[in-house]
Amino acid sequence: MKEILNSPVFVIGFTILVYLFCDIIYKKAKLALLNPVMISIIVLIMGLKGLDVDFDTYNNGTSILRLLLDASVVALAYPLYQQWDIIKRDYKKILLCMFIGSSVGIVSVVLLAWGFGASEKVMLSLIPKSITTPIAVKVSESIGGIAPLSAAVVIMVGIFGSVVGVQFLKIIKINKPESVGLAMGAAAHGLGTARVAPMGENYAAMAGLAIAMNGLITAILSPLFVEYFMKYIQ
Q1: How far apart are CA 206 and CA 202, in angstroms?
Q2: Domain final residue pick, 74, 108, 130
Q3: Are 127 and 225 in contact (CB under 8 A)?
């Protein structure tokens, strides 16, 4: 029985079934707090703990799912290509918005953490909070942060953004597809993109563009921020 529970077939099948079940509940209830990703994480942790399946076994067994996740991110290039005319037309505005968004994201989270008395390690770990996990882990390691903490924060930020992001943008009267897509991709990376993708190809294209640009800009700005700004708040 232990061999079955530790097999890749079981952990992959269990993961997919849990997500599908949580997705059905979410669609029926239509409650943002029942976000299928967030609930799936909770159910998986409880389920694997109860079945005595350790993290390394689960992580190794689900490697194929991570590969498919990477492929899904690359697939965002297709809607990006379809919206290329809009991107060419507004590329200066997009670059400026992404630079400001990335900069504000870095500075604001560090100042907030500093205000609550967080350690330097924690502050460094929070810097890549809004970029996709693989890039966030590398950025965190390069600037002296705690990579696992960064990965966990990225997931929480993505879940929070996907739950409240679209509603918040509606409240502040931001309804243009391009603006919503960029905001969701920049603030909530892949989960934000998944949230807006069903709303239209222009939403998905801009969100996918934001993921790539925010990751690149954050990777460039983070070491500079650590070198020239962190010393003033230590």
Answers
A1: 6
A2: 74
A3: yes
Residue labelled with tokens 């942790």: 45
pLDDT (mean) for 12-35: 85
pLDDT at residue 232 greater than cutoff 70 = no
With b for 16 or more beta-carbon neighbours within 10 A and e for fewer, the 11-23 pattern comes to bbebbeebbeebb
What's the half-sphere exposure (Cβ side, CA atoms, 13 Å) at 179? 8
Is residue 59 predicted with pLDDT exceeding 70?
yes
CB proximity list for 97: less than 8 A, separation 6 or greater: 182
Residue 207 has pLDDT above 80, yes or no: yes
Q: What is the DSSP string of 174-198?
A: ---HHHHHHHHHHHHHHHHHHHHGG
- In this structure, the answer to whether residues 201 and 152 fall within a common structural domain is yes
Residue 116: φ, ψ to 5°:
-90, 5
In the predicted model, is pLDDT for residue 6 greater than 80?
no
End residue of a domain, out of 57, 74, 91: 74
Cα(94)–Cα(188) distance, rounded to whole angstroms?
17
pTM of the model: 0.75
